[in-house]
Amino acid sequence: MKPVKIKEVILHTVKMKLVAPFTTSFGTFEEKHICLVEAIDESGISGWGETTTSDEPYYNEETTHTAVYMLKDFLIPKIIHKTIEHPLDVHDMLTFVRRNQIAKSAIETAIWDVFAKKNNMPLSELIGGTKTEIEVGKSIGIQATPEKLVEKIGEYVDEGFRKLKVKIAPGADLDYIEAVRKEFPDIPLMADANSAYTLNDIEHLKKLDQYNLMMIEQPLAHDDIIDHATLQKEIQTPVCLDESIHSLEDARKALQLGSCRIINIKIGRVGGLGESIRIHDLCRDNGVPVWCGGMLETGIGRAHNIALTSLSNFTIPGDTAPSSHYWDEDIIQPEVTMDHGIIQVHTGSGIGFEVNREKLEQLTVEKESITTAETPHPIP
Ligand code: OSB
Ligand code: MG
C-alpha cells in the first residue's frame, strides 16, 4: 500500500436545507451546517469526509461548530505532514483527544478516501467489502398523526425500501405502530426512540412485543448500557444500540452485558471507518448482526456509508436512503440513487463520486485552509 502524507486540509462549511423537516424525540431538523473536510496529499489527491454533526448538541455532545474547532486546533495539527502507512493507523493517532468522535471521523474518513484513490481502488475494496449492492431502508420522522405515518409508509413501501424505521417518543408510539401494523402486517418494521424512555416505562415498552418489530433502537438513556441489559431481559423485541456505542470497547461491553442483540454502526459516532470495521468484525465473530445508521448526510457521508455497508455482516438494511430523500440537489455527482430498495456499491476509485465544485461554492458559508501543524496548544 502506498503511504499518504497530507499537505493541506480545507474545511468547507456548508449550510444545507433538507427537502422536508425531520422530527425525532429530541427535536426537528430543517437546516444544518456541515463541515466538508478535503484532505489533500503531496501528490495532489483530494479525499473527502464530513462532520455528521448537527447545529445543536441534542443527539450527542458534538455540534458542527465544536467539530470544526477540534479539527483546527487539535486533530489536523496531529496528522498534517506525517507519513501515514495505513488508514487504520489514523484512529490511534487521534486517541490523544478524548471523545469528539464525529470530528475525528471527518478527517479519518477523508484520509481513507485519499488512500483508496492513491492506491487506485474503490473504498469498499480497501476496507474489505464483498457486497456489490446493498439493501436500503428509510428512517421516518415523527408524524403529526398515525394516519399521516401510514400514508408515508405506503409511499416508501411502493418505492421499494427494504426496512421501515419509525421514530417514536412517549405520546407518539403504540398507536402509531398499531396503525402501521394494521395496514402493513408483514413489512420489515422497527422503531427508534432516541433515548426517550426509562426503566419506569418497562410495562409500556413490553406492549411493543405484539407488533413483531425487527428491533427497538436506543429506547433508554444515551449513555447507558446497564439498564438496556435489564430491559432486554424483559422484552422479546431485540434491542439495538445507537447513541450508547462510541467505540469497539463500548461494543464489547454491551455484548458482554447483553445490552442489545443488534448494533447500529454510524461511522461518525464511533470515530471513523477503522473503528466501524473493528466493531463490525467483533459483532460478526459473536453472531450479532449490524446495520449502518444515518445522520442526514450529504453525498460524501452517504458514499462512506455505502462503502462500509459492503462488509459482509451488514445483514440488516441501513438508513442510507438516496440523495433525493434529503436534498433538492446533492453536492456529489452522480447523486446516490436506488432501484427497488437496492443501491449499487460504487466501483470508481475512492468514495466513487465527484464533488460538484460549483454547488459546493454556492453552499459554502465558511472556508479555511490549513497547511501547517501550528496551533496554540501543545500536541502530544
Ligand atoms: O437516531 O438514527 C438516528 C438522524 C439524525 C440523528 C439521529 C438519527 C437520525 C436518523 C436519520 O434516524 C437517518 C438518515 O436517514 O440519515
Ligand atoms: Mg438512532
Automatic annotation (TrEMBL):
Keyword Repressor: no
Enzyme Commission code: 4.2.1.113
Record's signal peptide: none
Reaction catalysis annotation: (1R,6R)-6-hydroxy-2-succinyl-cyclohexa-2,4-diene-1-carboxylate = 2-succinylbenzoate + H2O
Any one Pfam family match given in the protein's UniProt record, by short name: MR_MLE_N
Biological pathway: Quinol/quinone metabolism; menaquinone biosynthesis; Quinol/quinone metabolism; 1,4-dihydroxy-2-naphthoate biosynthesis; 1,4-dihydroxy-2-naphthoate from chorismate: step 4/7
Family classification: Belongs to the mandelate racemase/muconate lactonizing enzyme family. MenC type 2 subfamily.
Official protein name in the record: o-succinylbenzoate synthase
Taxonomic source organism: Siminovitchia acidinfaciens
Lineage, uppermost ranks: Bacteria, Bacillati, Bacillota, Bacilli, Bacillales
UniProt gene name: menC
